[in-house]
Amino acid sequence: MLTPDQVKQMIADIAPCEHIEVEGDGHHFFATIVSSRFQGKARLARHRMIKDGLAEKLASNELHALSIQTAATPEEWAAKGN
């Protein structure tokens, strides 16, 4: 069973991130991701970037479910008061 820290590292391996939060119960995970790599990309493209990078883990069901709560650039994240 995966831990939130393991999922966090998987995300960090896909895209350099300024901030990542991952919560979950070993089966279902929820992520907040802040990355400069999202600059100029639409919301759907940001989610696809992460999900495509995790496709093998998702297909094998090693990672059962990941809900990306926030996929923001550092500027967007700061504008929200974070």
From TrEMBL:
<dbReference type="InterPro" id="IPR036065">
    <property type="entry name" value="BolA-like_sf"/>
</dbReference>
<dbReference type="InterPro" id="IPR050961">
    <property type="entry name" value="BolA/IbaG_stress_morph_reg"/>
</dbReference>
<protein>
    <submittedName>
        <fullName>BolA/YrbA family protein</fullName>
    </submittedName>
</protein>
<dbReference type="Pfam" id="PF01722">
    <property type="entry name" value="BolA"/>
</dbReference>
<dbReference type="InterPro" id="IPR002634">
    <property type="entry name" value="BolA"/>
</dbReference>
<comment type="similarity">
    <text>Belongs to the BolA/IbaG family.</text>
</comment>
